[in-house]
Amino acid sequence: MSILAIIIITVALLILAGLSFYAGELLMQLKQQKQQIEQQREQKKQARDNNLIESIQTISHAMESEQCEVSEGALRLAVLFDHLSDAQQVDYVKKYPAIHALNDKIKHFAILEERKKLAKKERMRQDFQRMKAEAEFKDLVIAEAIELKTFSLSK
User: Fold this and answer.
1) Residue 122: which of 106, 109, 105, 141 has the closest Cα?
2) Integer Cα distance of 89 and 7 in angstroms
3) pLDDT at 10 over 90
4) Tally of domains in the chain
5) pLDDT at 155 over 90
6) Domain ranges, residue 85
7) What average pLDDT does this structure show over 87-95?
8) In this structure, what are the phi and psi dihedrals at residue 96, rounded to the nearest 5 degrees?
């Protein structure tokens, strides 16, 4: 083998080693970026959950002290449970059955602008059904609300 061939092979090996080292550096940077992105995603999820937990606790306090109607609280709490990060793993319908039962009975009623557009007779009919459902579930929902004043995610 000639000296020229040895030099070419040596240069090629040096170039290959340099490119391999550079590729390794890029892979390391990519791994660090992925870890940072995952950490940021986890922090955002935790912050969102903390806001939801605070809302659940606030609504529960308001329901217990009768600053919030039982039906309105049940509607809001059922939605908040659905938005928690562990909603796929934890069956909040089973954990808080009265809140969800009341929510199921009244969630189809018109609210806000839709309610204003209803005829007076229909609005009164919905109010009567809502009050009837509230009376049926009030004690159970309030008991669950008291339990929720110290709510936290199960981990």
Assistant:
1) 109
2) 63
3) yes
4) 1
5) no
6) 45-148
7) 92
8) -130, 70
Total-model pTM:
0.80
Does 28 reside within a domain? Answer: no
Angle at 153 between CA 78 and CA 51, to 5 degrees: 65
**Closest of 134, 154, 144 to residue 60, by C-alpha:** 144
Report the distance separating Cα 6 and Cα 2, nearest Å.
6
Q: Is position 4 within any domain?
A: no
Q: Which residues fall within 8 angstroms of residue 146, CB to CB, at 6 or more apart? A: 60, 64
**Residue 64, CA distances (Å) to 19, 28, 95, 116, 145 in order:** 67, 54, 18, 28, 7
- 54 Cα distance to chain centroid: 12
Distances (CA, A) of 140 to 16, 21, 40, 119: 72, 65, 39, 32
Helix axes 97-106, 120-148, angle to 10 degrees: 170
134 located within any domain:
yes
> Encoding tokens for residue 102?
């009341």
What pLDDT digit, counting tens, does each position of 113-153 carry?
A: 998 899 999 999 999 999 999 999 999 999 999 999 999 98
Q: Is residue 1 situated within a structural domain?
A: no
| Number of other residues whose CB lies within 10 A of the CB of residue 20 | 10
The closest of 68, 69, 106, 90 to 151, measured between CA atoms, is: 90
